[in-house]
Amino acid sequence: MTTQLKLPAPTRDVEQGQRDLAEYGLCVHEGFVEGEQLKALRERLVEQAELECEYGVGLLSSQSRGAGTWYGRPEPGAMPGWQGIPALYNKGRVFIDYLKHPLFAAYNQQLFRGASWHLSAMTGLIVRRGAEPMVVHVDQQFMPWTEVPTYLNCMLCLTEFEEVMGATRVVPKSHLGGYPKQAYSAERGAHNPEPIGTVAVEAPAGSVIFFESRTWHQSGISTSDKTRLSLTTLWQQHWVKPMDNIALNLQREVHAGLSADELKLLGFCAEPSGRIEAATPDAFQNTNRKTPYVPELRRDSAARPVALDGMGDRKNRDDDARAMGLKAN
After folding, report:
1. In 3-state terms, what secondary structure has residue 87?
2. 311 is in which domain, residue-wise?
3. Tally of domains within the chain
4. Same domain, 169 and 285
5. 234 — phi, psi (to 5°)?
6. Cβ pair 210, 137 in contact under 8 A
7. pLDDT tens digit string along 32-75?
8. For the chain, which terminal residue's Cβ has fewer other Cβ atoms within 10 angstroms, N or C?
9. Same domain flag for 44 and 88
């Protein structure tokens, strides 16, 4: 794809960031997180990553998730170039608090043109010397090009991002039409059959690199002894299947400590295609629609349904009706 590889200037103004996102398919919002919050996010991510490796459950690769990754313990003195720390919403209250940053709503509402949205995935990334580049791709590669993007990728720089550290590389304005060509071979794996020019997005710690799901991008090559840390928050329109199956992934002790607004950010809200039916008598429920637990019922069986708290009240019926575009009676 031929395009001028010019990046928008970093900004601290959300309206300028929204304009850049619309024009370039990306923007860099500086100072998104600062001070003690940035320090707490970084320290919690590093501690979690180290312990996952020590316990033999680290998500490791030379490149990225989906490219020869494995769960395990790194060889002594041979830490792979890439580590993912998935499902961060289960791994510390500091990550839930970060999801509530008010500027997420501003960017999501503008990009998705007012459609409802919620979390799709939340993953920490650690990139070290030797990390290999990904194939150039878009985050909605599995579906036809759409007029409105389906995801918004928000990459928080927990350390500085420099080109030599394998900083994310993009093709500015590539979101305006078409996807990058890809091929697969046993020798090379997934690859781009034709050369594609990309540019590294460099940014200071505390910045968020926003890029929407039609923007061409890849991870870069790390030739630096400095470790790159980031926290990727992927938001989506409500009708898309999330990258993480959060309704099943969310641990019960975490769920028990979340407010209705926090659960809504994680997708526990009944949209026309987002129902959660009760699989057990103590099943997770949507914030705006309670469903009974209803097993197979037979005349000669002791199985019985269970009406859950809040089910059937007027507010829930009104919310259901609005979600379906109907007027409650």
Report:
1. coil
2. 272-329
3. 2
4. no
5. -105, 120
6. no
7. 999 999 999 999 999 999 999 999 999 998 766 555 778 899 88
8. C
9. yes
